[in-house]
Amino acid sequence: MFYFLSEFSDQIAVLNVFRYLTFRAGGAVVTSLVVAFLFGPAIIRWLRTKQKNGQPIRNDGPQGHLVTKQGTPTMGGVMMLLGIALATLLWADLSNRYIWIALFVTLSYGAIGFLDDYLKVTRRSSGGLKGRTKLLAEISVAAVAAYFVVLAGTPDMAGKLALPFFKNVLIDLGVLYIPFVVFVMVGSGNAVNLTDGLDGLAIVPVMIAASVFTIIAYLIGNVVFANYLQVHYVPGAGELAIFCGSVVGAALGFLWFNAPPAMVFMGDTGSLAMGGALGAVAVVTKHEIVLGIVGGLFVLETVSVIVQVASFKLTGRRIFKMAPLHHHFEEKGWAESTIVIRFWIIAIILAIAGLATLKLR
Predict the structure, then answer these.
(1) How far apart are CA 148 and CA 145, in angstroms?
(2) Residue 42 reports pLDDT greater than 80
(3) Can you tell me the distance from the alpha carbon of 197 to that of 210, in angstroms, rounded to the nearest whole number?
(4) Nearest partner of 238 among 35, 86, 102, judged by Cα
């Protein structure tokens, strides 16, 4: 919305500042952060009145959670979705298709997660939507988004996969492109969801990954920087720096209330939405593989679940004391704060490695 004020810069010179991505990205960060601060307390109070007993705690999870997490409301992702939507609509160029694709995936995944959380709370059970129903909904949203990503892309980039570390390599996936995009978005959404198990554990890595993709989107969407770095230029992708900035601000605002001991959990409402947002941006910027590096912590958590399930079904034995991985360390006696901070450190290291791929060609 504010972007269109730049059209009057001939009459009022100061309005030209709204043309700059860096200024608007900063504005998006501040706006989503302020929205979370302003509306967060009211949202938490509302959630508490609707959820008398808070989020249902899994009986098969760490026993300590039955005491320490009991009564904490969920669906806190609502405040993040509100901040992201308002900040993006205010600061982004709304004629940019990629902005609408990213918002569509984020809000749709948030709606799926909200329904899942709602059923858990109303049924007083850790089981919400049926797994197949939830997965089908996620796949449908991702498939629609993939179709519009292809339509919005240039002919030389649409339907192709770029490889990090290689200058001019583009793999034409053909009919496999949409299934690949679906895999990235659905996988990203569920990976963040699996990681969301301790206070502050998921939201900081999300914020770190979103910060990295703010930089990536800005560079990929700028022909000068893209040519200098010898990465593939994606026209219009730079505008996603605004969207990523709104994710960073919303995540930072949510962390204020989610810091140990958490006043609210993001629930599937937030975790699915944040993962979907990262997946959508990675697809548009042609950095899907880099997302696997930057979001390596989420990958690690997901792999731990897959390995645990496969091992138990095939051999009847468990590799980890409990999955996802953070629960394994809880069962080993690590303090929650120790696990969270060490996982944050891992996320920072992986983020630096992901950024390094921009230069190592």
Answers:
(1) 5
(2) yes
(3) 20
(4) 102
Predicted local distance difference test score (pLDDT) of residue 323:
87
Q: Are 91 and 242 in contact (CB under 8 A)?
A: yes
Cβ atoms of 343 and 213 within 8 Å: the answer is no
Q: How confident is the model at residue 176 (pLDDT cuts 50, 70, 90)?
A: very high
Give the model's pLDDT for residue 61. Answer: 53
Enter the pTM of the model.
Answer: 0.93
Encode burial over 75-109: b for 16+ CB neighbours within 10 A, e otherwise: bbbbbbbbbbbbbbbbbbbeebebbbbbbbbbbbb
Q: How many CB atoms lie within 10 A of CB 339?
A: 20
Cα dihedral 258, 284, 296, 228, rounded to 10, equals -110
- What the block records as the tokens of 97 is 């298709």
Query: Which of 248, 211, 220, 160 has its CA nearest to residue 358?
Result: 220
Segment 102-120 shows an average pLDDT of: 95
- pLDDT reading at 167 higher than 70: yes
Element (H, E) at 341: helix 336-356
Residue 153's nearest CA partner among 234, 67, 248, 249 is 234
Question: Is residue 52 exposed (0-12), middle (13-18) or buried (19+ Cβ within 10 Å)?
Answer: exposed
Residues counted in the chain: 361
Orientation of helix 240-258 relative to helix 267-284, angle to 10°: 160
pLDDT recorded at residue 67: 44
Q: What is the mean pLDDT of the chain?
A: 91
Please check whether residue 245 is in contact with residue 253, taking contact to mean a CB–CB distance below 8 angstroms.
Answer: no
